[in-house]
Amino acid sequence: MTLLLNTTIKISLIVLIALAATFPTKMLPGVPTLGELGYPDSEVNAVFSVVAPAAVPRPIVMHMNAAINAAMKTPWLAQKLEEATFIPVFETPEEFAATLKKDREKWAAIVKRLGIKAE
Questions:
Q1: The whole model's pTM is what?
Q2: Among 53, 99, 95, 91, CA closest to 72
Q3: pLDDT at residue 1 above 50?
């Protein structure tokens, strides 16, 4: 997907004006985020995460968090993530819970404002 997108951009079939992401990516140099263009809170990010039931003991959660963060920082996996245009975010379990809460509130407000209903 990334190779196809980059090739399409290089031969000028499309012109990217902005990314709807929180952070710019090295895979698309020179393409700003919507936030950088003055549109704060406009990011739409795909999130891939590991979660566990609330009853899992904290030492196990912290061990898993440390192991996953360490794995994502290895040169091989970091390169693979970058090639797939994934931007790893290293958060504590508490920071991730706050991120999820903020995202739920943001999207709930958008759904309500637009009158979106489940069918």
A1: 0.69
A2: 91
A3: no
